[in-house]
Every structure is written in C-alpha cells, then in structure tokens.
Design goal:
It is built from 13 helices and 20 strands. By secondary structure, it is an alpha/beta fold. It folds into two domains: 213 residues, Rossmann fold (3-Layer(aba) Sandwich); 113 residues, 3-Layer(aba) Sandwich (Rossmann fold), CATH 3.40.50.720. It has a nine-stranded mixed beta sheet with strand order 2-15-16-14-13-17-18-19-20. Helix 5 runs parallel beside helix 6. The model has no long low-confidence stretch (mean pLDDT 95).
Length: 417
C-alpha cells in the first residue's frame, strides 16, 4: 500500500498500480540554459483505493506552486471554444438560464467558457487561481476573481452576488488539493434548484486509450462515475445525469444537484452498469493498463530511433503538460525529439522541464521531417489545418503517440507495431 490516506474517503487502502518515476512539475517550464538537474523532481505514482475505487497520485505539490502562475490558456485551439459554446447552450436550455441567474466557473482560466453565456444574458463570475490568465479574462471583460475556490471564497461570493443557479468546472476538478472544501463550497453556493456541471478527464477513457500521459502532478484524482459519486455523496450531492463527451480524449460530464432534489436519470444507471462491465472498479484493470504503457513506450522509442538512425529530424508539435509526462516517462530527450514548436507565446523560448526540450515559435517556412503530436487529443484539428496538409503532401509526417503509435503521411495512416 502507498503511505497515504485516500483523497476521497480517507482510508489507507490505496495500492500502487503505476509508477512513472520522479518527474518535475510538468507546467513549470524552465530556461533553456538552466543548469542541468536544478529543477526539483517529485514522485509520480498512481494508486487505486480498494475502499471507494478512487484512482489518485500520492504526492501533492502545493497548489500555490503549481497554479499561481500558469502557461495554459483555453482559447489557444478552435476545439475548446466550440465545445464550450455547445455545452453552454445545452446548460442554458436545460435549466432555463436568464438575466437574473448567476453562473460561477471554477478554474475559469482565460474566460473562454464564460464568454459563451453572453447570448443568454446571465450574470457570470470566474474564479481563477493563476494571476496571469485571470488578467487575460479580466482584460477581455469577463468578471474574474483571482483566488482559489474553496469555502472561504464561496462565503465572499454569496455576500457579493448571492447563490448560483449553475456552478461549472471543466478540466479543473482533478486539480483540487482542497478537494472536500471545494465540494462543500459548491453545495453552499448552489440555489435550492441549482446544478453543478463538472467535466473531467474520464478514467475509463484513459484506460482504454492508454492515456498515461494525462497523469501529472496537477491531476491529483482520476474519476469514474462511481468514484466521483463517492466523493459528492459525502457532502449531500448526487449525480442525476451523466454522459461522456469527446473533449480531452474523453471526459465525463456529470450534472449534480442536492440529493433527492432531482430525479436520477437512466444515463446514470446505464453508466454505472457499463463501468461494472468494464471492470473500472477493479484493480486488475489498472494493472493491465500499466502493462500497456510499457508496450506503448517500446513501440514509440523504436520508431523514434529509426528516424534518428536515418538522419531524419523529429520535432514536437506543441508543448502541453501531458507531453512532459510522456517525454520524461519514456526518457525521450532532444537526441530523439530536437525541439517543440508552440503558438502560445508564454511557452516560447523556454524548455520542457526534465528532458529540457527547447520550445520555439511555430514558423511557416521551417519544418522537420516529422512532428510528434504531444497534444494528441487535438490531432484531428491539427491535421485538418491547411498548412499541415501541405506539409504532409510535401513528404512530411505526423506521429500520433496515443492511444496507439501511428504515423500519418501522404500515403495514409499506419499503425506502428
């Protein structure tokens, strides 16, 4: 057993299933000339709780270190704004949002999601811990508090704005060091008929996609419907509708209300049954997942070595957090992937920590023989880009590392065995 109390239920029955070694904080990008070995490394171990089935990492980097300054912004791709627009429409229609209603978004980043509520005229408030991205939202006219969301924050929101008809959290609910304080805050913030809508990377999708690279120190917990429900029910909340959405390689979207206030739909019962059928509450499932990660590593390393042996260059297309996990877990340094190219100016000129892969600005007239798409969850969008289509037509290739190793070229897409 890991030496920890479960983040969800507090039991000490958390067993190690995946050990990715000691790694630096993935989003703490470093100067390219930083002395080797200077950045701190922390254990990156994944455990399974036999009591409540929550999958989680055992080491916590203080939230102030990880989130007070942050290089990720939601509006960088076209996919996320479109996804949030569609989600906002569904929420507004389902719960009749209007000008009198308040929507609070936890971990609101640059305000991309909250901007999508403009057609409905409702009041909005973002709560974002990272000062740099909170300012981007504020400058764009999105009301945003630069704070960590917890019970104290909620008390202040209630004083100034009153209760919220809808509270949302997308891509943040697995980040929460103050997990129980956050959930108590959500319960206190909701109106009597209020709804909490949470989207989080779905553990079932991670398993089926061998998406081990979604494990990093910011992601403390990995949810199934069962483990999410085990957390919420401790605080008088329950999931009444649930579905899977394709964003981020597969996420669970749960609609949550006070227990008994809304009828529990068939979607919840159907997902519960499916999770049982697929063994998402069994440790053996995650032990097999660990074995699949090793197989993926061997295929990808062998492929990159063939490029190197042939004198062909490989660059990373983007430098996302998950890319740091993949490169550091597999020991892929600049000898195999020479650099990463980025559109996000906050990353350009720095280096991916650990492996120290330099990050350069993406330029239209300079390219390698192949790109590896570290943000594989946006591969479809990237490959449809006209410039990338031209790159392929001229003999360039794209490597997709997850869920299976593939090479996309002018002759088509081939699986790497």
């Amino acid at each position: 057993m890991l030496d920890m109390a479960c983040r969800c239920c507090g039991s000490r029955t958390v067993e190690l299933v995946v050990d990715l070694g000691d790694q630096p904080h993935c989003n703490r990008l470093v100067a390219q000339d930083l002395t080797p070995g200077v950045e701190p490394h922390y254990p990156l171990r994944v455990g399974f709780c036999h009591t409540c089935t929550m999958v989680q990492i055992d080491h916590t980097i203080p939230k102030e270190s990880m989130f007070s300054d942050y290089p990720y912004v939601s509006g960088t791709t076209k996919t996320l704004p479109a996804h949030f627009a569609e989600t906002s429409r569904r929420i507004a229609d389902a719960y009749g949002l209007g000008p009198q209603d308040l929507v609070v978004d936890i971990g609101s980043n640059d305000g991309t999601w909250l901007k999508q509520y403009a057609p409905y005229g409702c009041r909005v408030l973002g709560v974002e811990a990272a000062g740099n991205v909170a300012k981007i939202a504020q400058d764009a006219g999105v009301p945003t508090w630069n704070r960590f969301f917890n019970e104290d924050c909620v008390a202040d929101i209630l004083k100034e704005f009153g209760p919220a008809k809808v509270v949302t959290a997308a891509g943040v609910f697995f980040h929460l060091e103050e997990l129980h304080s956050v959930v108590r805050g959500i319960e206190a913030l909701l109106t009597s008929d209020g709804v909490f809508v949470v989207q989080a990377i779905y553990l079932g999708g991670m398993v089926e996609n061998t998406a081990f690279d979604q494990v990093y120190h910011e992601h403390l917990c990995y949810y199934t419907l069962k483990s999410l429900s085990a957390l919420l029910e401790q605080h008088g909340l329950e999931v009444f509708e649930a579905k899977l959405v394709p964003i981020h390689g597969g996420s669970i979207e749960a609609h949550v209300a006070r227990k008994g206030s809304r009828p529990v739909g068939d979607s919840v019962r159907d997902m519960q049954a499916e999770e049982i059928r697929k063994g998402f509450g069994d440790i053996a499932t995650y032990q097999r997942f660990a074995g699949n990660v090793v197989e993926l590593r061997d295929r990808l390393l062998a492929l990159l070595q063939t490029y190197k042996s042939a004198g062909r260059s490989v660059w990373a297309y983007g430098a996302p957090a998950k890319g740091a996990t993949l490169l550091n877990s597999f020991g892929i340094g600049p000898d195999l992937v020479q650099q990463a190219v980025e559109r996000n100016p906050m990353k350009v000129g720095l280096a991916i920590p650990g492996v120290r892969t330099p990050i350069a600005a993406e330029e239209a007239d300079v390219s390698p023989n192949a790109y590896i798409i570290l943000a594989w969850n946006f591969a479809d969008e990237f490959l449809k880009n006209a410039a990338n289509q031209k790159f392929i037509e001229q003999g360039g290739e794209f490597i997709i590392p997850v869920p299976k190793v593939q090479v996309v070229s002018a002759s088509g897409t081939r699986d790497v065995k």
